[in-house]
Amino acid sequence: MEGWNCWSCLLDTGSLMNNPITDLLAGFRYREMRVAKEWLLVPPPSNPHVAVIGDYDCDGICSSAIIIRTLETIGWRVTEHVARRASGYGSGSSLFDEVMQSDPSVVVVCDMGTNDFEGVKRFVDYGKRVVIIDHHLPDSLCTIHKVPHHMVSLINPLTDNKSGHSKEKLVGLCSSGLARILSEYLVGTEGGRLCEEDEFASFIRQIACIGTVGDMADITNEINATIIAEGIEAIKNAAHPAVSTMISSSFDKNKTIDYRFLAFNVCPVINAPGKIYDDAYSSLAMFIKLDKGFCVECAKYCIRCNNWRKGESERCARKAEVNMVKFADGTGIIYGEFPIGLVGSIANRLLKFNLDRCICVTTATYDSVLKGSARGENVLEYLEGFRDSLVRLGGHKNACGFTIERIRLQNLYDYVRMKDIQVKE
Description:
The protein is α/β, with parallel strands linked by helices. Helix content is 46%, strand content 14%. It is built from 18 helices and eleven strands. Strand 7 (331-336), helix 16 and strand 8 form a beta-alpha-beta unit. Helix 9 packs across helix 10, helix 11 crosses helix 15 and helix 15 (292-323) packs across helix 16.
């Protein structure tokens, strides 16, 4: 990781002439958020139920927590749901029956949905309005635009729609950042800002900050920098009980609350239960439940999950390093019988062996389709040329996941080898 030493200046909102979030919300012109506000600002008396579905990673958990607390503040009756890793990507097929039990009038999907046409359409077919808060690139098969537009609000700055200059300013935000903007847009005071001293506002700032750090969002984006700086300040002033528990349990002797500390000591704890035990609801519960003692106990459970994950990831990474194929262009590739929930963590740990990027695939199951993860410099762009040979590819600039047919593993190796040859030439 480069640039730790420059974060203090990048994240200093005092150096900004104007707060970019205040400037953004003044005269907001993002159509999709305006539609979402129309649907969510006042719960309909006939059916004040809303369902919130989130992805199981740190950004999905944090964006869900922000939206749940915001909608509860407005007066909605909220049922919360978390995607399960074992069910694969999407909000529809695996969670549809569970969500429909509460018969919500609106379904809010956090950190996924852009590429889940079938899942979203099932809700729409039953007359449910759907708000999608997502930041992932639409893949080549994305057909979400085919869902009736009057039933879906797709808050994703990377989708092609003419939503004005406000949308462009949101490019680079993760789902937690977008959720914070929507929260302030819904319940902010005059000028769109939340009350500085309010416990609710402090919670929103803390969780948006953690989600933004956990998703490795671009901190040169001034809105991201503001979200992180304000969140760190809120944590220092009065950390949420779960956040405080994670901080105090850290083995980091220097407990200075900054970007680096959150990235290594808080975000992985939120990720761990969903990655290891497919139990991401525990991570969500520690933020949304009002019983502080219960939040602390959930946090302790997540910490135990993460401690096991760290030890096992390190053991697997040391073993993988011996068998990993390294290329001159700085790419490493490894196939092995790794626990599915550790593939991304292993790939990330292998970067320390003088790699620019690492591709890791687990062969631990007998399935014909395998799971892989890649970390490192521009790794999503690096794999774009192989997208047509993958079952699915998604993620971010420097961190992505994919699924691949077992019979194509040799093709992936050949692709990486050819990329290396092209660089040499």
